Amino acid sequence: MDYDDIRSSNVPQGTRSGYGRSRRHDETAEKADLAFVAQTARAAAADPGSSVDYADDVIYQIVTDRFLDGNSANNPDGELYSSGCSNLRKYCGGDWRGIVEKIEDGYLTGMGITAVWVSPPFENVTSVDSDAGTSYHGYWARDFKDPNPFFGDAAAFEGLIDAAHDNGIKVVIDFVPNHTSPSTADGELEDGVLYDDDAYVASYSDDPNGYFHHNGGTDYSSYEDQIYRNLYDLADFDQQEAYVDRYLKDAVKQWLDAGIDGIRVDAVAHMPPKWQKTLMDVIYDRRPVFTFGEWFLGADEYNRRYYDFSNDSGMSLLDFRFGQEIRQVLRDFTDDWYGFWDVLRETADEHDQVVDQVPFIDNHDMARFTVEGGETVNTDMALAVLLTSRGTPTVYYGTEQYLTGGADPENRKPMPAFDTSTTAYEVLSKLAPLRQSNPALAYGGTRQRWLNGDVFVYEREFGDNVALVAINRSREWYEITDLYTSLPPGSYADVLDGVLDGFGTTVNGDGSIDAFSFGPQTVCVWEHAGNTSEPALGRVGPTMGRTGHTVTISGEGFGDVAGTVTFGSTEAEVVSWTDARIEATVPPLAGGYYDVTVVDADGAQSDAFEGFEVLTAEQVSVRFVVDNAETAIGENVYLAGNVHELGEWDAARAVGPFFNQVVHEYLTWYYDVNVPAGTSIEFKFVKIDGDGTVTWESGSDRQYTTPSDSTGEYVGDWRT
Ligand code: NOJ
Ligand code: NOJ
Ligand code: CA
Ligand code: CA
User: Fold this and answer.
1) Is the Cβ atom of 90 under 6 angstroms away from ligand 2?
2) What is the pLDDT of residues 534-555, one digit of tens each?
3) Centre of ligand 3 from the C-alpha of residue 98, in Å
4) pTM of structure
């Protein structure tokens, strides 16, 4: 019997069973402090929803040039353009108008998509490199304040925003503040040229003011190296230069004012982390939108700094841990569900808010999930896992059409068709709405209910809402025994309607499910949406802000009548209140971390959301430099001071470790730090060794008044 026979033959349950290392566990991957509960479905289909809470959304990532040519009049001429897209490194004509067409004809909404992430929308270089080709991908910006004319003009962008919003879809732009474009040795492109609203500013070789780093290319040997040297040959911004800082922040404000609902930040591992925190402060002050960064991780790559960035920067991250692992389990078969479960637990432990991260199965920087000549059912199964995962699922355009292709540009082929009858399209259209109707998917923790290398049964739960997902990735049958669930007793239909060979089930009074035989390459999804009556807090966003900023609190069971929201022990002004979503204003508080708690009109209290960061004031980035700081092996320099941003004299919260290799070299140390603007601060440099032993500088505290609206620099000698 070959594989097709197994899939199509109707083997009765129980006739084949019990292979190998089946093993039952019951463990939970959820933050103890992040409570349970839910949110009701978005009121109207055409409501684009919250621009800060994407937990119940599904994002669709579009390489704008490769999706659909909706207006051939804006296509480039000559060398830049490839008719029929035979040259994948040239522009192929796709544009914002094409996306509008697919929104308006129901292709995206029919799949349950509620947000699109589009290529960087701003003007790029227009020359052609004989190897790398053109800027069709959008990552070679020339003028961050103008639209890319090949995607459309300002009116066309507005048309995209309007059509999306009219159809309940949010628009996320890709923002690229790390660099302009390549400055290649052969001089073929445009030398990293930068324009400011059409006015020439500088290029990489004509840079008298030092707007770019001139430290050579990075070999990724350290965090410092990858931040302050060029990524490939891309002209690397010095964000600490006042003009660059202002330019990038003004540009992002301009796109926010154009009505975008979210931002994907490119290459966050290549920019000073604390400068990015000042960027997030600017974004949240202008208009809070969900923002997630790209910190690329390879397969099995664990990086402490990745999690530190996720928990400190104020932005979420693309979930590369999830993405790489699901590819090992369902695409490459180099790992199994045990490894996947390890990653789920790790990410739940390490991220302060794992529901805020952005998982995916493929993207424009890795081979397509579907393997040429491989089984499309692997893609279908991966999409089912993705759509029922914690975090906001992102689907790469064309995955639903089983596009294949290896490294870029092969993974960026044009959409081959807009076929709404593929199995993948069906899987998405059945599971995406569940994210909105059952808050267990948006806010729940993940619990492992049955596990072996091939079979994974996991449960998502929030308040009175439960979803149970069972997947068998293999061609074997397994006997599933001793399966327990939090689903209430009763019968449940497969949410996927058998599209992936799933079936209904019955839950007994004690929460058990009778033993059953689980067939090859099958996914079942069973769910119960309850009606949580006590306040259950799902997420808070943004997770940092200033006094007066609006924060959105999502969950279920808040009640229809407003109660109270507190930050620490201080009550916040409530701006709006529904059973599933509250908007409140950050009260006048000193900078610090505060618990956010909801109390409903009847006095019932939610669990606390821990660690909302109140910033002292508007943030500016200051480079602190200390000369002649001699250290022992294992010892590093940090900064500690009197404001929240500098740890309030708590050495355990000192900022650093400082760098000492690229911009300045040992014995000089430096670090770019977010500090409150226009503030007189007191601080000292400190040395901390590997055991945590702290050596404070001697003498009196240093004093410095931070700039009111720009970057700054402080230089001093270590005081022995
Ligand atoms: C990551 C982007 O996703 C990739 O496509 C791009 O080439 C680099 N960053 C540089 O912008
Ligand atoms: C080619 C990739 O297609 C593009 O995404 C990237 O920006 C450049 N390489 C970097 O030089
Ligand atoms: Ca076009
Ligand atoms: Ca950089």
Assistant:
1) no
2) 999 999 999 999 999 999 999 9
3) 8
4) 0.93
